[in-house]
User: Fold this.
Amino acid sequence: MTARSPFDDLLKNQANYAPLTPLTFIERAAYVYPDRLAVVHGAQRWTWRETYARCRRLASALARRGVGKNDVVAVMAPNTPPMYEAAFGVPMCGGVLNTLNTRLDGETLAFMLQHGGAKVLITDREFSPAIETALSLLDTKPLVIDIADPAHPEGKLLGETEYEAFLAEGDPDYDWQPPGDEWDAIALNYTSGTTGDPKGVVYHHRGAHLNAVSNILNWGMPHHAVYLWTLPMFHCNGWCFPWTVAERAGVNVCLRRVEAKAVLDAIRDNGVTHMCGAPIVYSMLINAPEDLRAGISHRIAGQVAGAAPPAAIIEGADRIGIDLTHVYGLTEVYGPAGVCSKQEGWAHM
Assistant:
């Protein structure tokens, strides 16, 4: 029999162990860099202090409506501040964030809401036709909160209250608690494009924390990077970049639609340094009229996912000032799990 080691008695406790969670990233950003810019959406600007307070308001308001550990909060929204805030506010009250693919039809969305057991649905009015259909198919309807974004005033309001009014119900100093176990669920994501019904994938706090940090390490992402949201936040929780940008105390430049002029204007106006997207996003920028790129003189770091990009995409992106890094992943692994690390010799090929 092996003798017991004194190391066996060194058990974890509050003094020597804390569960990993990406929620601590925004807490630190607000504490260390309270007045640095955090979120840009059109003419709207929020600092990290303000963004943290808004996330805590959301968590508090959800908790007051009975949302607690393992309750699912679904969000149907483009890459706008409410979507970003949900990445923190929902898990701050113990909830599980379910970001919905804005391209899906009402029947598929109804399946996800029913299967995931969403207790609350936060939805942008742009998607009211599909959401109205989905709600009509549910046996038990969630609390519906409308996002009335001034950037898209059209669309039917379906909910009990509007997002900003809902935030006003919450406490900006809400005393959120980290998860009791880093294995606790932080997000529920559904795969799409599969045979049969969508399949649910559960992310835990530990995995979200580690992948958020991995984004920094593999990309050499510096403090205060300016990140343009060309990648949907509904896709693998934006590859965990909502949490990554908070860890870097960077700037989130929101974007309702990925269109060439909107993207290039955002790059120019905000000094964007980093972005992600599918090959089609970069192809769109490469083939955009030259005058749309006028005034952009700095280079940008870009990640491109999926199958290896064609040489024309790599060359074209380089020509317009985007240094591409190819990554590959899937919903089940938090987004990018494989990275094609650049080699020095490639520059001479």
